Amino acid sequence: MDGERSPDDQRHASELSAIPKPPFSRRRFLQYAAAASGAAAAVTTGLDAAGPAEKAQAAAIASGKHLTRSIKDLKHVVILMQENRSFDHYFGTLRGVRGFGDKQILTYQDGTTIFQQPDASRTDLGHLLPYHLTDQTDGDLDHGWDGDHEAWNNGLWNNWVPAKTEETMGYFTRDDVPFQYALADAFTICDGYHQAIMGPTSPNRMYFWTGTSSGWTTNPNDYEVDFGPDAGTPLVTTYPELLQAAGVSWRVYANNQAGDEGGSEAFLGDFGDNPLWFYQQYNSTNSRQGGTSALAVNGAVTPWQSAAGAPAMSETHAEYVLSSFIDDVRDNALPRVSWIVAPAGYCEHPSYTPDYGAHYLNTVLRTLFANPELWAETALFITYDEHDGFFDHRLPPFPEASVADEYIDGWPIGLGTRVPMIIASPWTRGGFVDSNVYNHTSMLQFLATWTGVKPANVTSWRESVTGDLTAAFDFEHPDFSIPLNIPSLAETYALSQETGGSTATPPEGGQQMPVQEPGSRPHRPSDHQPFADAAVDRATGTVTATLTNSGKVGVGFLVYPDAYQAPSTTPVTVLAGSPGSYAWDTTTTDGKYAFSVYGPDGFLTSFAGEVVPAGQDSGPVPVVTAVPRRGSARELRIDLANEGDGDVVYTLTPNDYEGREQTLTIRSRGSRAIAWPTDADGYYDVVITASAGGGFKRRYAGRIA
């Protein structure tokens, strides 16, 4: 029975330098990876590929291709959405990403940070820090609409433990999910990618395939129509049918046996993860019999078969499940756009081990590697539908309440928690990180940029503040060789046979913040260019922050009071060339103010002080403004001024990246400009305090790119 439904040495050095040295807790896999710079691993199946030979073959492929050095060189997109992992849960300790070492994080009014989640059961600190999970299978945490919004807590994101249980703070390391780390080291990982909706699997997958969940916030019954005449609801236009109408070939690859059954059949079927079954234009029978139309056949919405004939679990079992995909790749019959839907056991859902998912991913990847000509024109996108309730520390943007089609019952739909996205292709080699803001509809935006077929249902707000994933690619400099750090299928299968571990939280008094791997990784360009600065109107007592963005993708800022007002969150959406603002009336707070503005990729500005009323100039009056300077010599120009008669002593302290501590005295009515440096990627973070001004403080952190 058919098992399915119907360029350089520097980059290679980057891959190898990230591999940890012995000893390892998961020895067989990691010892292989550590040896990748030497002889290629023994070939154990037809899908395995040795590094040096493929490197030579890649050079021959490159020399024979007529490259446009543009997105036109991409001929095939393969999309694989796995299950239920947050970014911090998987990659919080990965070097060079916004993980547990992030310093540009939400700080609460009591001085704690978003990493310190309140936990009434803890007597040592009263909060729970992220802690290391060593068990490969974990409980299915709350990740529903209500639970996600409970953790969100009106944008404060400080209610994770009550909403999700203590296990929400559990995370893995390279030793626990080494294959996933190897992928990140070889290709490009996006650390600003979010689930589309604060809700469970199916609504997020609806967004992934259609651009909307059409109001659904829960998981419908598997294989039943929810959109169409049988459901008494309007039809919803899906993206695959738009591709078909435009003449763009596509297909969903999913095993056609057993459906979403568990137990011994958990490694067959699609786990109910193909949302096209919900749409009557595919599922014309409104049953597990699916349909017979071209949409149904291409969409893997056809009658389920029994598990008869399926092989026992083995190293090659995943090849059986993926047999139709493997055949099409081998025969050069792969469509332009492919979606792959994994069975339960291979989908990385916490009820199953990440290692089986790693072996499945490796089978997909090595299938592509085995056809070098096709690999040279293919991109594989690997992401996760939602977070399963696992914690993540980055703040997802959400829109103003007035934005149409982005609220349900008074709650914002999204964006939701960060989830991983890794893009494997010749144009995303080298262990890069892309920190632009994305969500599941960004995949549709990418396909639209590439094919010209625009999705039907993505809201204008969502399209304006999330990118189309093209920034992750370097089309001018492809590397067609096979990464040397990707292990054999024998190794990933052996990894799946290792079990054991614990989900227990640290003992009382035993908590410590996890340490992120040392080192950095190269950054992809930024499509966002946020900035914010504040002006004090001494006559009215109003402090106004002007929020700007000179990037091509909009920014969803979030503003938080740091003192003097009740904790709250104010969203401000800013498009290029159209600034926004946030005003603080100090007449209601005894002349004092303190608030912070957060944005993408570690953008953070803070403003605090006490307004000196107009005409009262006998003492010092500190005034600080800043302007990012772009170009070859990137810097933050900081102007330190004094509108009063007494001296102001400023202290400038680097909080991260580059710079040195400086103390400068500004005399009465004087000013001075300072050029604050950035690091090689354009990042800066400086804190400025003044000797006068009622707790005067400014903090500027962000990226000039």
Mean pLDDT, all residues: 91
**Percentage of residues in helical conformation:** 10-25%
What strand order characterises the main sheet? 19-18-21-22-29-28-25-26
The DSSP helix count reads 17
Structural class designation:
alpha+beta
Q: What fraction of residues sit in β-strands?
A: 15-25%
- Sequence stretches where pLDDT stays below 50 over 5 or more residues: 1-25, 33-46
Brief write-up:
By secondary structure, the protein is of the alpha+beta class. It has 17 helices and 29 strands.
Structure report:
The protein has an eight-stranded antiparallel sheet. It has a seven-stranded mixed sheet with strand order 8-9-1-10-13-6-14, with helices on both faces. By secondary structure, the chain is an alpha+beta fold. A hairpin with a 7-residue loop joins β25 (648-654) and β26 (662-666). α8 (201-210) packs parallel to α15 and α13 (354-369) runs antiparallel to α17 (489-496). Helix content is 20%, strand content 21%. The relative contact order is 0.15. The longest helix has 16 residues, at 354-369. The chain has 17 helices and 29 strands. The chain starts with 8 loop residues before the first helix and ends with a strand.
